Amino acid sequence: MIYLIRHAEKENSSVHAKLTKKGLESSFIYGKNLKKSNIKLTKIITSPIERCLQTSQKIAEAYKNIIIEESSLLGNPGIFVNDGDLAMDIFNQYKLIDIINMQLSNQELEGFNDIKNASNQLLNLMKTNKDNTLYISHDAIISPFIFFIKNRKRIVQNEIVNYLDGYSCNKNNSLNLWSPYSMSNLIKK
Questions:
Q1: Mind giving me the DSSP string for 31-94?
Q2: Which of 38, 63, 145, 148 has the highest CB neighbour number within 10 Å of its CB?
Q3: What is the DSSP letter of 112?
Q4: CB-side neighbour CA atoms (13 Å) of 114
Q5: Does the pLDDT value for residue 182 go beyond 60?
Q6: Dihedral of the CA atoms 101, 107, 113, 117 (nearest 10)?
Q7: Integer Cα distance of 57 and 18 in angstroms
Q8: Phi and psi angles of residue 114, each rounded to the nearest 5 degrees, phi first
């Protein structure tokens, strides 16, 4: 089983925002509850952005000797960005929901990679890490990736992944059987 989740609550909308105190606490509780739920993680692969690293480190505290790896496919810049400056102009010009819908409709965006080729990069990473891996990334990567895989052409605001929510996938030799896997209930004490 693989899991793809968004980092915990962040301080602000800055690209380099860190987790809030609540985000740090929620990540730790999340990790404890994952373990209590008998989810046997063998590895965490995370975006190298600080808030994702913080999320992974707090979750890993519950598992002790779990491996944490960083991948720029999950952030900084991530699978979709090929020019950070041009992409940042797009992020400053449009709302995230609009950017995702432009990606899903195959609209060309300056500074962005083609959604199909970009998504295939992340699928290939997931195929090489088959054993109970937790991936930690960002809403701007998870949402377009998942809805592209689900062959959606448009989404609405409330479908964008929330903090510490994400998706799971059974590994029956394919990665095309995605289903929503809300984990926010795991942070309840």
A1: HHHHHHTT----EEEE-SSHHHHHHHHHHHTTTSS-EEEE-TTSSTT-SSBS-HHHHHHHHHHS
A2: 145
A3: B
A4: 3
A5: no
A6: 90
A7: 13
A8: -60, 135
**CB contact at 8 A, 99 and 109:** yes
Q: Are 168 and 1 in contact (CB under 8 A)?
A: yes
Q: Cis omega before residue 48 (within 30°)?
A: no
Distances (CA, A) of 164 to 76, 105, 139: 19, 27, 10
Range of the domain at 145: 2-187
For the domain that residue 46 is a member of, what is the CATH number? Answer: 3.40.50.1240
Total count of domains within the chain: 1
Residue the block writes with tokens 């790896």: 69
* Token code pair at residue 103: 């990606």
Give me the amino acid identity at 84: G
Measuring CA to CA, how many Å separate 121 from each of 22, 72, 145? 33, 11, 10
From 45-59, 147-161, 162-176, the region with the lowest mean pLDDT: 162-176
90: pLDDT strictly greater than 70: yes
- Of 51, 58, 95, give the one whose Cα is nearest residue 75: 51
pTM: 0.91
Percent of the chain predicted with pLDDT > 70: 89
